[in-house]
Design brief:
The protein is an alpha/beta fold and 172 residues long. 47% of the residues lie in helices and 17% in strands. Strands 2-1-3-4-5 form a 5-stranded mixed beta sheet. Strand 3, helix 4 and strand 4 form a beta-alpha-beta unit. The longest helix has 34 residues. The mean pLDDT is 93. It comes from Neobacillus cucumis.
Length: 172
């Protein structure tokens, strides 16, 4: 029997594939996969920019699809794989949908609510807590985000330089 670690890496690779779909659309590259009984029941990636919708996070879209496909809001016995640590909104949806386990890649120092800023997923004041596995393929997941934001910064820098050059030419 394969170890949980091997399964976690396999499913995280699937989440990374979703993140890359987001990146191709110029979305922040975050992907999520929901797994039940060893099968992927839903997959999603960030669509916030495309949809201009603050709640179009990968986790929420995957949860929404899974609820529709299973015909239930209860996703007990499911595992959510996500490339970036869930934010407060996504952590709330995870708790409310009764996801059993969350596995994430990169931590989020600015908004992580699965252990970095706080840990909503395991707060015993809620009526549901999740098992949590952090840092699966952390380097790969973090690199996707780092590369994406570096390209954004470089693009802005280039645009600024081009505008400066154009203004300079206009003055001549």
């Amino acid at each position: 029997m394969e170890s949980t670690h091997t399964h976690d890496e396999y499913f995280m690779m699937e989440a990374i594939k979703e993140a890359k779909k987001a990146e191709e659309m110029n979305e922040v590259p975050i992907g999520a996969i929901l797994v039940m009984k060893g099968e992927i029941i839903s997959r999603a990636h960030n669509l916030r920019e495309l949809e201009q919708n603050a709640i179009a996070h990968a986790e929420l879209l995957a949860i929404d699809q899974a609820c529709r496909d299973t015909g239930s809001w209860r996703l007990e016995n499911s595992t959510l794989y996500v490339t970036l640590e869930p934010c407060p909104m996504c952590a709330g949806a995870i708790i409310l949908s009764r996801v059993k386990r969350v596995v994430y890649g990169a931590g989020d120092p600015k908004g992580g609510c699965a252990g970095t800023l706080m840990n909503l997923l395991q707060d015993d004041r809620f009526n549901h807590q999740c098992e949590l596995t952090k840092g699966v393929m952390e380097k790969e997941c973090g690199q996707l985000l780092s590369d994406f934001f570096r390209r954004i910064r470089e693009g802005k820098k280039l645009t600024k330089q081009m505008k400066k050059n154009q203004t300079s030419n206009d003055l001549q």
